[in-house]
Amino acid sequence: MRATRRGNIRIMSVRVQVPEILRGMPVFRGTRVAARALFDYLEAREPLDELLIDFPGVSRETALAALRSERLLFYPRLNADTLGPVCS
Fold first, then answer.
1. Do 34 and 42 form a contact (C-beta atoms < 8 A)?
2. Could you give the CA distance from residue 41 to residue 67 in angstroms, rounded to a whole number?
3. What's the rounded Cα separation, in Å, for the pair 22 and 34?
4. Fewer CB in 10 Å around end: N or C, the chain?
5. What kind of fold does domain 2-80 have according to CATH?
6. Global pTM?
């Protein structure tokens, strides 16, 4: 994973967009799994473990890093000390 910085927070780049993969839809790095799948599962009230079973190429660490990254869009003033866990 590539690390980037947003303010005081170091963010791991867990998703990429490549025109040849799913027509440029964001996917989890190193997979062909659409990043949107994570949010579709959560919206359908499916547990994270279901996503990890259905898409074994996506690790728990990667899924949680994606959630942390997206959470920063809503709470941009958080820093690494206040970010805390997304879920366990």
1. no
2. 13
3. 8
4. C
5. Arc Repressor Mutant, subunit A (1.10.10)
6. 0.67
pLDDT in tens, 10-68: 444 777 778 888 888 889 988 999 999 999 999 999 999 999 999 999 999 999 988 88
Which residues touch 81 (CB under 8 Å, ≥6 apart)? Answer: none
Residue with tokens 């809503």: 74
**Residues 40, 45: Cα–Cα separation, whole Å:** 9
Question: What is the rounded CA–CA span in Å between residue 76 and residue 58?
Answer: 26
The rounded distance, in Å, linking the Cα atoms of 7 and 26 is 23
The amino acid at residue 62 is T
